Amino acid sequence: MQPEYRQRVSLLNPVHFCALGFGSGLIPLMPGTFGSLAAIPLLLLSLPLDIWQFSALTFLLSLLGVYICGKTANDMQVHDHGSIVWDEVAGMFVTFLFLPLTMPNIILGFILFRIFDILKPWPIGIIDRRLHGGTGIMLDDLFAGAMACLSLHAINWALTFFTLI
């Protein structure tokens, strides 16, 4: 028998389907990690986009996520249930802002994003505890993505700098 919250969502509902990371959030072990992995094919599909188109798409995914995550949480009657992973998808897109989508960057960006999302250093932890609804669900992962993005930029810069020496 399914848990009660699971009876309130359906993968046939497009909002729920997206919020649950195309079903990846329903994997019982580490749904956030699987939600982050679900973002990788979308990232690869965005390879033809220029930097501004990718930025606009990231903004759109983040903005839509506030509604998608909030609606699904309300329908489940559980705030920020672990199976809601659209925030991880959007956070992964933030991770790669203004960076080339190379395989080394994707792997390192994925690892960095998961570290920031799991450990929730300041201010991510405060956001996670204090904000609620769709905005709260989304913002901590968007901040985790921003911190992963800054870290990945620093790593790329350092590798470029030390290669030139």
From TrEMBL:
- Which InterPro entries does UniProt cross-reference here? PgpA, PgpA-like_sf, YutG/PgpA
Q: Describe the reaction catalysed, as an equation.
A: a 1,2-diacyl-sn-glycero-3-phospho-(1'-sn-glycero-3'-phosphate) + H2O = a 1,2-diacyl-sn-glycero-3-phospho-(1'-sn-glycerol) + phosphate
Q: What does this protein do?
A: Lipid phosphatase which dephosphorylates phosphatidylglycerophosphate (PGP) to phosphatidylglycerol (PG).
- Note the superkingdom of the native organism: Bacteria
* YutG/PgpA domain ranges (all copies): 18-155
Q: What is the lineage of its organism?
A: Bacteria, Pseudomonadati, Pseudomonadota, Gammaproteobacteria, Alteromonadales
- Per UniProt, which keywords does this protein have? Cell inner membrane, Cell membrane, Hydrolase, Lipid degradation, Lipid metabolism, Magnesium, Membrane, Metal-binding, Phospholipid degradation, Phospholipid metabolism, Transmembrane, Transmembrane helix
Q: Where in the cell is it found?
A: Cell inner membrane
Question: What's its EC?
Answer: 3.1.3.27
Origin organism is Alteromonas aquimaris
Q: Which cofactors must be present for this protein to function?
A: Mg(2+)
* Topology term for the membrane: Multi-pass membrane protein
Q: What class of enzyme is it?
A: hydrolase
Keyword Cell inner membrane recorded: yes
Tell me what this protein is called: Phosphatidylglycerophosphatase A
User: Annotated pathway, please?
Assistant: Phospholipid metabolism; phosphatidylglycerol biosynthesis; phosphatidylglycerol from CDP-diacylglycerol: step 2/2
